[in-house]
Specification:
single chain; mainly alpha; two-stranded antiparallel sheet; 13 helices; 2 strands; 7tm6_olfct_rcpt; sensory transduction
């Protein structure tokens, strides 16, 4: 298909990591603007089939819940996958609506924000260390998927296709066709199994993209802070390397020119982060909202189920869901911390060293520029989920506590029954 290929600032194509290819696997990666009609048609057909797999599985789960409403442990297990299915249908339609903004965001990110060794070798090395940690966490997302699929294949193989009581990969019930007949069962297993693969790959792709953008944007702010620390030295170096005489007035001018350059870079960076904030706000919302519910019901199911090999899928899912909260919270907090420190860096850029050498007019212009830069850096930048969930450690802490509270509530209800 004619998929969009992001380019770096030197027009080299970007090699996408395996996590990001989850968009393509789900037919949600943007196509090129000039993609041909055949590519668009095939892309839309594949995406429609994928959505139908979600709908069919959710309908089967809804029927199961209506038939077993009094069985809280069974309903809780079914709700786990129902929440996931509903969440990912929302994700799919949000991503469909934002194909152009996503393509533009990625274009701007890899061209202007993405750090390379040419920008700063030391910071790039530090970024790569953080990215390795992020890759390890996001690759662990695949573990629950593999366990669910392997255990399901083993269960079906143990019983055999001839059995009238073959298990489904999720808790499902079908009134509109005989899902236990061999051919219908295979079709049901394929489309419900596809949901497992689709869900995890899309989950991984979105989280990796969010964390990658936040990480590089945060280090761009850090680069601004480091340049502000060296601002006076850079102004002096400009005068020594140029033809302008090294006088107090010229030093003021060189310092202000460098200060304005950093401020302009900050404004461009702020514009990109505002664009990222508008794109990721939906993702952050449903990660926080549905994540709390999933932690609650999966914990409840794990507690009430006997300890068997099947328990491993609940354990790995709980670890992955908790890791997701901690991961996106870490990078959200990183961005907030860097933008908070930027205000102090403008104030501490050694502008006061120039006042004793400058005339009143030059000093007034310098103080005006510094004051303006500080005033425009007063508010830290915080991504949020539709203005309900700021992406910080404190929000993650509240979400985890809420999941525990709902878990205790489910336990109380189950005990009364």
């Amino acid at each position: 298909m004619d998929y969009f290929v992001p380019l770096q600032f030197d027009n080299r194509p970007v090699k996408l990591p395996i996590q990001v290819t989850g968009y393509k696997f789900n037919f949600l990666w943007p196509l090129k603007e000039d993609a041909n009609i055949l590519s668009r048609l095939v892309h839309n057909i594949c995406l429609s089939v994928s959505v139908l797999c979600y709908i069919g599985t959710i309908l089967g789960e809804s029927t199961f819940i209506s038939e077993n409403i009094s069985n809280i442990p069974a309903v809780a297990e079914c709700l786990c996958t129902s929440f996931m299915g509903v969440q990912y249908i929302i994700r799919i339609f949000v991503l469909l609506r934002r194909q152009r903004p996503l393509r533009k965001l990625l274009q701007n990110f890899y061209r202007d924000i993405y750090f390379t060794y040419a920008d700063d070798a030391a910071l790039c090395k530090e970024i790569n260390t953080v990215i390795r940690f992020m890759k390890m966490f996001t690759q662990f997302y695949y573990v629950p998927m593999m366990l669910i699929l392997i255990l399901y294949v083993y269960d079906v193989a143990s019983i055999g296709l001839a059995s009238p009581h073959k298990p489904f990969i999720y808790r499902m019930s079908f009134r509109w066709y005989d899902a236990q007949a061999p051919q219908q069962f295979i079709i049901t297993a394929i489309y419900s199994g596809w949901l497992t693969i689709s869900t995890v790959t899309l989950w991984t792709a979105e989280d990796y993209t969010l964390c990658l953008v936040l990480c590089h944007a945060s280090f761009r702010y850090k680069k601004l802070r480091l340049d502000l620390q060296q601002l006076l030295e850079m102004a002096r170096a400009d005068l020594k390397s140029g033809e302008t005489r090294c006088t107090n007035r010229n030093l003021h001018t060189a310092f202000r020119r460098r200060l304005c350059e950093i401020f302009q870079r900050q404004q461009l960076l702020n514009g990109f982060v505002a664009e990222a904030k508008a794109h990721f706000t939906y993702q952050i919302f449903y990660v926080m909202f549905f994540g709390v519910l999933l932690l609650c019901v999966v914990s409840f199911q794990f507690q009430n189920a006997p300890i068997t090999v099947d328990s491993s899928k609940y354990i790995s899912w709980l670890i992955s869901q908790t890791a997701q909260f901690l991961l996106i919270g870490y990078f959200g907090q990183m961005l907030m911390d860097e933008t908070t420190e930027l205000r102090n860096s403008f104030y501490c850029c050694r502008w006061e060293d120039l006042l004793v050498h400058g005339d009143p007019h030059s000093n007034k212009l310098l103080l005006s520029d510094v004051k303006f830069a500080i005033m425009n850096s007063q508010e830290p930048i915080v991504l949020d989920g539709m203005k309900f969930f700021p992406l910080t450690y404190s929000t993650v802490s509240v979400a985890l506590r809420s999941a525990v509270s709902y878990f205790m509530f489910l336990n109380t209800m189950n005990g009364e029954n």
